[in-house]
Amino acid sequence: MSSSADSASTTIRADGDGTPTAGATLRTRHLLLMIVAAAAPLGVAIGNLPIGIVLGNGIGLPAAFLAAAIIIACLATGFIRLARQVRAEGGFADLVRAGLGEGAGLGVAYVTGIAYWTGSLALAASTGYFGNLIAHSHGIDIPWWVYSFVAYGIILTLGRRAADLSARLLLALMVAEVAVVVALDLAIIVNHGASAFPVDVFALSHALSGNLGPAVLIGFTSFIGVESAVLYTRETRDPGRSVPRATYGAVVAIGALYVLTAWLIIGSLGTSTAVAKAGELQGDLVFTVAGNELGSTFTIVVQIFFVTSLMACFIALHNASSRYTHTLADRGALPRTLATLHPTFRSPARASTALAGIGLLLFIAFAATGADPYIGLATSLTGLFTLGIVAAQALVAISVVVYFIRNGARFAWSTVTAPLLGGVGALLACAAIVANYSVLVGSNSLGARLVPLILLVALVAGFAVHAVRHRAPARRGQAPQEVVEAA
């Protein structure tokens, strides 16, 4: 799961013409490095590949990454083009508002807020599962939910105190992740030669086999956040050239890394046995492959960096959902108390505490019912997270087309064709995830199949809340007042 999700939820602080601020120093290579590093490739390899192979389209998973990369590139084209026209505001909600109106924008804000929160829940489940798995491999046997509770304790502390991870340290860790994945890929190539590249993984019979929903889910989850180069417009020396280059370069680089890694891991396992081995090992799959290819010491290195990746992603998604909640409350779209800031750190303390508290209560219930933290909790919550973000991306694509046609733009690749293709692809991805959601949950019950309706209700709620607020012009014009907790 990408750790840059929080950046995708923030606002674009750029003038309409994309003019950089004085002292802007970022170039294409800087933006590209930040996006690729923040994509958390080690987290994707260890956390997502087994799910895609076991629940998805088996050895055809590399094709899912390739298809997702193409669709994301089309979506990013429209995202970048519209962001140039949006003055001082951005994010999915504001881009949708620009083309589809206030109600749609508010609805997307609700959807993305819920999506990021469920994404943080998925990471809490993954932290518990992999914490237990790694500790067990070293002779320590502690229930998975203990690790999830500890992670929530860290989140509660950081969320209230605004204790950000050092940007440079985080970037260094993420770059190290990329290096670890590349080292594993190279080892597989050296050890297996041509057999590491089985061409039949791209055969249509394999690409379309199994359950496409989980395969599509893994493909799109792994690319969430690649459009975040737009957020650095004012810090970039030549944003008109650097932002598009970095975005497309990131899609190519991340796509190539994921396709190659999935391809090589499947090749190292053997196409005839990869699905069975992935089902047997589940989250231990990549650790086992790493040990086989580079030895037990390298496995420990992989485990260390994977733990840092999980926590970085967890913090990022929790921060994103907290800030979405705070902003919506500050604008009167959620209870006002959730807009309360910490008196010292000026962080969205009330929103952070509320979301973490609800999440902690849910995990107490999950632990009590004996829920499977990986194939069950993590998969279903990741499904809801990805569905929400991809649905928001589809609405952004529609907004791009509507905005430019309404403003007299010619039918061009960046204003109509690319966003239209990307939007159709995103909608098809949403349909595949919804159709196979029961596979992610591990239950075919009516309740499990209806879970995605939460996002539809959130979208409709945006229109309803906007309609109610529109009838109260006196309140609508009031500027929000900053509220802080009592010291």
TrEMBL record:
GO cellular component: membrane
Keywords for this protein: Membrane, Transmembrane, Transmembrane helix
Membrane topology: Multi-pass membrane protein
Transmembrane intervals: 31-53, 59-83, 104-130, 142-158, 170-192, 212-233, 245-266, 294-317, 351-371, 383-405, 417-440, 446-468
Subcellular location: Membrane
A Pfam family this chain is assigned to: AA_permease
Major localization listed first in the record, in broad terms: membrane
Coiled coil stretches, renumbered: none
Region (Disordered): 1-21
GO terms of biological process kind: transmembrane transport
Biased amino acid composition, Polar residues: 1-12
UniProt name for this protein: Amino acid/polyamine/organocation transporter, APC superfamily
